[in-house]
Write a structure and sequence with these properties.
Radius of gyration: 16 Å
Number of domains: 1
Shape: globular
CATH architecture: 2-Layer Sandwich
CATH superfamily: Ribonuclease H-like superfamily/Ribonuclease H
Largest sheet: 5 strands, mixed
CATH topology: Nucleotidyltransferase, domain 5
Length: about 150
């Protein structure tokens, strides 16, 4: 019996799902990716959202609509001053796994990819791939005293 490539592709088991987010002051550029059991990766959806509470809700709804519900999802973003904090807190408060990566780690990883031009979209793709390929720690919300001190 012959199987079409599409059918064989859909039979592969997903090991991980990652949402790479390039955070800016007003915009979130988002890329969703999957890691399969044969260790191949697939970046399959991207979109932009506003960096507001309304944008956070839209982002989560969009991801849940497209992601495989039986496999956990990790949201990965670069530490960008203060612009990433509201989104990270929102996601953690709603029970999602979040990892915040230092910019130099993403920059070094970006150099290993064969990307000539860095755009917001290519940055979100690199962050999603980073999340798929690494075992990342969960980010925890800082204690209120640190916000007070700042």
């Amino acid at each position: 019996m012959l199987y079409s490539f599409k059918k064989i592709k859909s039979m592969r088991r997903i090991l991980r799902q990652s949402v790479g987010i390039d955070v800016a002051q007003r915009e979130l550029v988002v890329q969703i990716g999957r890691l399969y059991e044969d260790l191949s990766t697939e970046l399959y959806a991207n979109r932009c959202f506003s960096n507001t509470g309304k944008g956070f809700v839209s982002l989560v709804q969009w991801v849940l609509k497209l992601a495989e519900p039986t496999v956990s999802i990790r949201y990965v973003m670069e530490a960008t001053g203060v612009y990433h904090e509201s989104l990270a807190c929102y996601l953690v408060d709603h029970g999602y796994a979040v990892s915040i990566i230092l910019p130099n780690k993403i920059s070094n990883y970006f150099r290993t990819l064969s990307v000539k031009t860095i755009t917001d979209k290519s940055a979100s793709e690199a962050i999603a791939l980073f999340g798929l390929e690494r075992n990342l720690e969960d980010w925890k919300r800082p204690k209120p005293v640190f916000k007070y001190l700042r």
